[in-house]
Amino acid sequence: MSKFSPCLWFDGKVEEAAEFYVNAFEQSKINKVDYYVDSEHQPKGSVLTIALTLAGQEVILLNGGPEFNFTPAISFFVECETEEQINKLWETLSHKGEVLMEFGAYPFSKKYGWLKDQYGVSWQLVLSETPQSIAPSFLFTGEQFGKAEEAMNQWIEIFGEGNVEYVQKNPDGTVAQALFTMHGQPFRVMDSGEDHDFTFTMATSFYVYCKDQAEIDRLWEAVTAKGKEWPCGWMEDKYGVCWQTVTTDMDELFDNSDPDRAYRVMQELYKMKRIDISALRQAYKGEK
Fold this sequence. Notes:
Blueprint: E1 4-10, H1 14-24, E2 29-35, E3 47-54, E4 57-63, E5 74-80, H2 83-94, E6 98-106, E7 109-116, E8 122-127, E9 133-140, H3 148-159, E10 162-169, E11 175-182, E12 185-191, E13 204-210, H4 213-224, E14 228-229, E15 234-236, E16 242-247, H5 250-253, H6 259-270, H7 277-285
Parallel strand pairs: 1-4, 5-8, 9-12, 13-16
Antiparallel strand pairs: 1-13, 2-3, 3-4, 5-9, 6-7, 7-8, 10-11, 11-12, 14-15, 15-16
Helix pairs in contact: 6-7
């Protein structure tokens, strides 16, 4: 299991979007569908989450409601191996979408383009002649402008097992493009001093799979020290990027095969900000 998985917050249409993305990317499939076991947030029985594999990367689609919207502050950088592959992917993702940077030749690549798909998710496609892969890309704008390098280094310090692969600077010292890895997964950061009217939102967050309560506690303290605590294990860092601590046995705890048990665990989760694994496991066993 990878350490991090992007979580995309949708207002309905999650099943439609799941099929759309699985058909768009290679090495892709729908892994698991979970449903609401209560009616507090969405109608009982409606889709809660869909776990996908896209180009080998797990992505979670969350049917959360209308509270948050995607912005280009977080996009997904897709490296493509052949022109046929990138052309097909661009055609598919741009259908009913919006072009943010025209698809064509650039000094850094024979083919590149940046778009927002019909659901609002942003993608950067580049011809790199390497197997198709997806990496989250963070664009630091407005009040966050100039903090890309700081954020990259802080995330590596907090989440561990990280390495800066390269940093390309602008003349003013801000980051034009930087690539780094954490736990073997690639991430990118950029600064932009242009007058953008968007920043990071909870529409795009990141699962962080934790092995035990000690790791959850450590990450929670480090991320929220200058950020914010949110319910159900959501934590917002000082830059406005949201991360979710999840347990490695979360699939088992929220298994829908026993609706009463799943309801107990979900109700216990709703009481929490920081995840308490033992309390969730007690609810699973009917001990609470």
